[in-house]
Structure formats: structure tokens, C-alpha cells
Amino acid sequence: MSGETVREIxxxxxEVFAEITEELAGADPSLLVVTSDSRGSAGLxxxxxxxxxxxxxxxxxxxxxxxxxxGLAAGGRRVIAVSPASFLAARSLEQIKHDVCYSDxxxxxxxxxxxxxxxxxxxxxxxxxDFAALRGIHNITVVxxxxxxxxxxxxxxxxxxxxxxxxxxGKKPLPDLPHRGAFSLGKGRIIREGSDGAFIATGETxxxxxxxAEALAQTGASVAVVSMHTVKPLDAELVCAxxxxxxxxxxxxxxxxxxxxxxxxxxxxxxxxxxxxYRVAAIPDEYTVTGxxxxxxxxxxxxxxxxxxxxxxxxxxx
Amino acid sequence: xxxxxxKRKSLSYRRxxxxxxxxxxxxxxxxxxxxxxxxxxxxxxxMDIRPGNWESLQRDVYIQSKGHSVxxxxxxxxxxxxxxxxxxRTGNRFQTRLIGHPTRKVPGVEHNTGGLGHGLSVSxxxxxxxxxxxxxxxxxxxxxxxxxxxxxxxxxxxSAAHYKLDNLTAVVDRNGLQITGATARVNDPEPLEDKWSAxxxxxxxxxxxxxxxxxxxxxxxxxxxxxPGVLIADTVKGRGISFIEGRVEWHHKVxxxxxxxxxxxxxxxxx
Lengths: 318, 271
Hints:
The complex is a heterodimer. Chain A is an alpha/beta fold. Chain A is built from twelve helices and 14 strands. Chain B is α/β, with parallel strands linked by helices. The interface between A and B is medium-sized, with 28 and 33 residues.
């Protein structure tokens, strides 16, 4: 589409995760990474070869993955447990609830190849339920970093937090976004200011929303973009500030339309007595069409052009 | 503690369990009475876990995977001084710490359990951390026999053998009953020795109510160098009370006043 900025593509968040994990392991001798035959998928093979004593492998057994991670944490170790987001947030959901969250063990759960990253592998491998499932569990922070920088910062912050944190990201290279200020779990990041409308986006939809906002600027619309990297606890203050300052809000997520960021923001706005024109751009309640991550997101309007259309329509209602 | 002292403890714990459940108006009577001799021997003769060393990573660790038999654990923890015995009267009451499954809110409880099939994986993690850090800490996990239908146990069993966790011991409270009926008819776990052995564990089997045999078996740990150990403890659900023993309806039945008094008299005669 015209007016779209050509962005420099960085690394995949997955690759950055492997780098930061090795860096953190170098700095903290107690750090262990637990995998369920997922070291290759997680890009951790080189790390595993260099620091084999930091890897715990449980095989294809996600329930055991999370239980063992909780036990290692109880035994005084810092622990990152890694598995595809789809399985981690479903197969081992009860272990996350009982053994990590309820028992309050500071395990960092990393869901790789999240959302529809697995593309044509199909719905068994898609995680469009993880925000909803984990939002309903007490004592866990849910994070979807938007770019390489947020991935690094989120992992550092999660380990420093000393409490249960879930971080999910995809595996496709993506652009780094403009950075201002420090990263803080639970605090959304304003990527672009705007006075007419706002995209509140999370994870790998943020750069798509930013591209849409830049295109909308060409048409005279001033649209803000927020990276709401922490889906829970939600930065209600920022959501409300946007709800007061703009007339149209679109929440964007690579997740089911049910139970994710869109629902969470709507509740916060309504409870604050704010009623901007509002839409959620998410995956509808169905098993998705077949395609790559890009093709699937575009099909459901979670692309720069799809998002700018939604925002344009919403702004024109006003 | 001598064998006689341990036997007296078991009787006293049985009284405490019945009193707890009677006062609370809720509890898992049958299962608590089947595993109490095991928990007694573990805490009073085998494991190094006391209020005084609770904060130490060197001490032993106990995970009760069959969390529903929590009354048996509470009465032992109170006896060891983890909290005051008077608190046992608050069981199941509004805002009590002593809820119907173990929680870390209660001093002396290591891990929150209640959903079945969780404890062994957590125990594997604890035992592995001790091995990696070259600590002498040993990990003990109490499993129910009905609970063994949960596949997660067997995921954990595989990894315990893979990591050669001879500092990990599972004890199976083989009382033969679960809420629906006989475990053999619901989903038969036998042959248990063959199953654990095939998964790479060193297996022993004994009478789970014979204090001397429990002390002897658990005193011989590790059962084999480089292998996790499992003790299959053959028990009787509701053991010690004639009208509760072996009766499936007592899985979580609460005694009436008459039944409670009768049960306490039966235990009095035994002492």
C-alpha cells in the first residue's frame, strides 16, 4: 500500500531469546533451562552445546517439563522452561496453575512459536488460547514482546522479578521498533503518539499496527500505537489515558478474539466510564485458514492494510 | 525413636486425624488412615525435616502427591511443632490455613498439591537440583495407588530414572480403593513392581502398617545406586477402625458423633 514505510528487518525474537538466555546463564550460575525436546525449535542447540550443564531435558513431556521446573525452582535454582506455546499453555496448564503459580515458584515459562507462527502446520500448533487461559490463573505475568529489544528486556525482567512469568513470541524475523525509556513489566510502551485514534497492540502485531498508523498519517489521521507487551497485569492507567485522549481505539492481538487483550482493554475502559469507538482485531472464533503466519494474519485483517481500514472506518464513524 | 514409641505415635496420630475430621466436618478419612503409618515413620525415623532446619537446602524434602489425605500430614506437622496443635481445631473453617489439601501457607508444607499426578514431577525437580548442587538432601514423595492412573506420574518416572535420581524415593500407599471402588476394578495398576521396575526404578514392597518393616525398608535407602527407589506399601484404607477399614464409602465420609466416640474407644483399647 502507498505510504508504507519499508522497515529494516531484525532478527527473530526466537533468535534473540537464545542469545539473551546464554548471556543470562553466563551471569547467573544457578540458571537452568528446561526443555521438552524443544531445544532445536527454541534455537538453543548452540547454547546446549556450549553450556550442557545448564540444560535439563525431559523429552516430549510437557506436564513433566513444568512440574520438574517448579521442583528445580523449589530447590533453589533459577529456571526457564521452554516449549511451543500451544502445548505449554494447554497440555501443562494444570502444572502451571498448581505447581508454579499456586505454589508460587519463580519459573519463567517461555512459549515459543506462539500465535499462528507455525502457519500451515495447523491449529494443533497454534496458540490462540494462551492469553485467555493464563489470564484466568492468579499469580502469573503474561508477556508478548513486540520486537527484539522487548524480548531481551522481558526475559531479563522476568528472571529478576522472582515470580511466575509467561513470555510468548514467534519465530519470524521482524523489525525493531523505536525505543524510548525503560522496559517495565506491566507498563505499556507508547511507540507512536497520536490524537485521533490509538492502536493498543501486543506481540508481533505491534509493528503491523505501527505501519498502519504511518499509512493513516498520510491521510491526515493522527493515530497512536502502544505496545502492550504485558497482557496481564494490564496497564489500565495507559488504556484509560488513551480512552480519554482519542475517539477510536483498536486492540490488536495474535490471539482468539475471546479472552485476550481486546476483552481486557474493553473492561478497563467500560469500568472507567470511557466509551471510545472500539474494535478488536484478533483471530475470529474458528480454526484458521491454512497459510503462513503473514497470510493467516492478513486474511483476518491483522495486517498494516487491514488495520488501517479498521481504524479509518472507526474514525469516520465519529 | 524406638519401634514402641513409633507405634504409640501412630495410635495418637489416628486419634488426631479422626478428631480433626470430626471437628472440621470434612476430610479424607480412609486415605489418611491408610498412609499415617508411612508418614509417621518418614518424619519420626527416616527424614531430616524439623522446624529448626526448615530454611536449609540441606534438609530432606517431603512432597505429598496424594494431597487429599492432608489430615495425616497436618497432625504430624503439628506434633513436630511446625504449628501449634490447637490450630488443628480450625480445620476447614472460614479463613483457616488448614484447608482440605496441602498449601504452603501451613508451616512445614513444601508444595501445594491436590490435583493428582503432580507431586512426582516436582519431586524429580527437587531431587535433580540437589544432585546438580551436590547436596545430600533426599526427596520423598507419597503417591496414592488410584493416582497412578495419571499419566504424568509415568513421565516423571521416566525422567527420574534417566537422571539416575537415587536421592528420590516414592512411597505408594497401596490401599486398593479409590472413590469409585476397588482400584483393581476402576483401572488396575498392577503389576506395580513390574511397571516401576520397567521404568528403571529399584522396587521394594512391604506391609505399610508394619512399623518395623517400614523402618527397615526405608532405612536401606538407596535401594540401588544410581536408581530412584519406590516402596510399594500395602495398606488398608481406614486402617485401625473396624467399621471404616476397607469400606469405599469412607473415602471422604465424616464420622457422626456416635461413630467418632466408637472409633476413639477402639483406638483406646489398642493403646
